[in-house]
Amino acid sequence: MMNHSLKSQCKVNPGTVIEGKWHRNRYTIVKELGFGANGIVYLAKGQNQQVALKMSDNGMSITSEVNVLKSFAKVQGSALGPSLLDVDDWERKSGKVSFYVMEYIQGPDLLAFIAQKGPSWTGVLIVQLLRDLESLHKSGWVFGDLKPDNLIVTGPPPKIRTIDVGGTTIRGRAIKEFTEFYDRGYWGLGTRKADPAYDLFAVAMILINTAYPKRFSKTTGDLKQLKMMVRQKKELMKYEDVILKALQGHYASADIMRNDMLQLTRPNSRHSNASNRKAGQSATRQPASRQAYVQRNKKGSFMETVSIVLIVTLLYFFYIYGQLL
Q: Domain residue spans in the chain?
């Protein structure tokens, strides 16, 4: 959580105009979107578009997040984070406040989207998320504070986007920000070292969260409790194997977990098996039909031969009888 003094330092009212000291760009505050440990994010109007503006009196934090967004921009073909638009300082009576401006990603968060559209979208969106996480991990970062609040679904077509990169950490370092429910350290299932498995644990908890929108309290706080919660929801049973592997850190990469999810989001295997059985039965019946056809043909040919022999015999008999007369 953000400390009270920092929140007061960065707190501004709707209608406030923020003017950059260096670039002189002006932004009018519309409303607060959220706040975290290192600053407050506002919806603002600037340069004829809506933008998200994050401000903090911690210049180092702003610099770190800006570097993350710049790194994301270098990852081709990925929708990692919002686009960076501006970086500057705002001089106010209480002191200098650093801020940066980014693309405003509009849409419901992941849980709200699934509640509206149905659980059939869960697998599709998680597969998209894992693809982006693979790109993020390959670029040397771990998202860290991965949770539904930081996942926005835009579209159409529906596409998952990440926001709030404040917890994004260089691989190998200690996680900077986390939310307990999605943190493997909180559940006693790993450290808070920034590695791909840390994010994949959070993905598993997000899957669980889709079936428990209000989350649940930690009791034993171990794998046994989480496994029990998964098995109490039929919509999670489909993903049980993937969830448990991610919770235990068995996935070496987001891409491997994504491949497993893709297998589960394809048409129902029971339906496919039934189709295969039906096709097999048809294939089995076809030779029997061909055999019957051949047998019928053989029988027909035999009868035809017998008939011809009888006719020839009768003709010969009548010929001999005629000669005798």
A: 4-103, 110-270
